[in-house]
Structures
1.
Amino acid sequence: MPHIRVLPHAEICPEGADIEGPEGMSICDALLSGGIAIEHACEKACACTTCHVLVRRGYEALAPASEKEEDLLDKAWGLEPDSRLSCQAKIPKGEDLVIEIPKYTINMVSEGH
């Protein structure tokens, strides 16, 4: 089963984490199953950017982002070339990943607006 290393995030995962997830599971679902409370305001419907992650290792092994995902990523805080929506990116076969959760998300609900 592929291994996912989650880099430390001050609020969500201060110590970082090491989790596993089966091939084909979304990165978001793997994080949630591993006890990492990543935001997913649209309930994983590819309608927001709150589950935005940076794939620091293993990005090339992921299936390409859809046009809809790319359009949404354009609105994500801290967009980088290795950005993906974790609800859309699926764990690839036999490839370990290193994931960084950005410091901020664009989520007016969690910000109290």
Note: The radius of gyration is 13 Å.
2.
Amino acid sequence: MPQVNVTINGKIYRMACDDGQEAHLEGLADRLNVVIDRLRGSFGEIGDQRLTVMAALTMGDELTEAHRRIRRLEAELAGINENKSAVIARYEEAEAGFARAIDQVALRIEGFADRLVAQRRHG
């Protein structure tokens, strides 16, 4: 299992990760450092542990909001898919209706044609 050294809030931590996840872990540490730096800029020096906890809570809040947005988008997509299915069903019904109407018109035309042929033969 690979190990990666990441620096968080000025401290180096040796972390284990799955194969191929090294860059992802480093990116997560970089993101955490960005949040810590932003909080430090807003609150000043409030203690490393408190700053790290606040950063974790901030990132957790961002993750919760992202999950909320994903669920809302999934619900919208489900609604769109339901509407799409309803539109397709109406289209198929209309298409079947047109086909039946065309068949009826064709039968009437054939009937007229048959009567014309019969009149010519007898007329």
Note: The mean pLDDT is 94.
3.
Amino acid sequence: MENLENDKYARAKKRVDELKGFYIHLSIYVVINTFVLVNIYVQTDNFWQWPHFLTLFGWGIGLAFHAAKVFGVNPFLGKDWEEKQIQKYIDKDKEDINKFL
């Protein structure tokens, strides 16, 4: 029984550490990119240029992937897709077995 409680605690701690890591990543993203964009705004006359937002965009993609991993969101290969693929292979195996019976 104590082993089960330890496993539950370890899983909960891992989940909290993942969330904490994401929120730290998000905070650093906001602080650094705010600093970069403010500096660019102060230093240049023409702020609205694509290269000025390249870091923001590239890092934002990485942050989005991090969020998808932490919060379990996968629009391309989500749970529904997994279930459909599993069912497809189960059905295929049943058909193959029925061929030989």
Note: The mean pLDDT is 89.
